Amino acid sequence: MRTFYLAALSAAIVTLSVGSIAQQPALTPNPAPAPAQSAPATAVQKPSAILQPSLDGLKSSISSLNLDKWKRGNVRQEAQDHISSIMADMQNRLPGLMTDADSAPAQISKTLPLSRNVDALYDVFLRVVDAARISAPSDQVQSLQQAQAGLEHSRSILDAQLQSVAADQDKQFGTLQVTLRQKEQALQTALATPPPAPKPEPCVPPKKKVVRKKTTPKPKPSTTQQPSTQQPAPQKPQN
């Protein structure tokens, strides 16, 4: 159930992020107030730093087993088969999963396959420990139990880190939902509100055309005398 929740949460975050980028509208309304940012996430360790010491202890414990000292029977044969399966997984499959997880330790889709593989490896190793309690000498049983305790401890640390990463991504997912919801509401408000009517331009009266009156120049007085045209009256003859 835990692994299904982590995988579903990771897929939902990726899907929502891609969808938010692809569905951005052309209209850009006034930006909505940004939500308060959460505290920075806890530093994430590489899975190899958590698991490798216990895996080395497991490999050393299995390599030091002497099955010839075990009681003969089906229990010893089954333990031999389980040991062969564990060694093959640690040599062939586990290194590649570890490399992928180390490349992106905060990405659940990279770390989860490694965690599942280690869980399966631990379950098979428990069968070896149970078989040793029945058929193996006490010193070999003690060595296997120490390796079991170390692997169990490292698995717990890795699981706790996965849960922490999932909680951080859950917060980011919630913050992203709030941001998208605010942007959607702002866009709907901008589309529903009609644009303001344009302000009427002030009416400027036309300028009156100034008509200039033409002035008639006054005639200048003449300075030359004109000859008189009157004839003198005829004089009467004297007697």
Walk me through what this model shows.
Keywords: Signal. This protein has a domain of 130 residues: Four Helix Bundle (Hemerythrin (Met), subunit A) (Up-down Bundle), CATH 1.20.120. The protein is rod-shaped, with a radius of gyration of 51 Å. It is built from six helices and no strands. It is mostly helical.
Low-confidence stretches: 16-40
- Counting DSSP E segments of at least 2 residues, the number of strands comes to 0
Instruction: Using the alpha-carbon principal axes, give the shape.
Output: rod-shaped
How helix-rich are the residues, as a percent range? 55-70%
Strand content: under 5%
Helix/strand structural class: mainly alpha
CATH domain class of one domain: Mainly Alpha
CATH topology-level name of one domain: Four Helix Bundle (Hemerythrin (Met), subunit A)
String of helices and strands: HHHHHH
Keywords: Signal
Short note summarizing the structure:
This protein has helices at 2-22, 47-63, 74-92, 94-103, 108-135, 138-192.
What is the fold's blueprint, element by element?
Blueprint (H helix, E strand, L loop, with lengths): L1 H21 L24 H17 L10 H19 L1 H10 L4 H28 L2 H55 L47
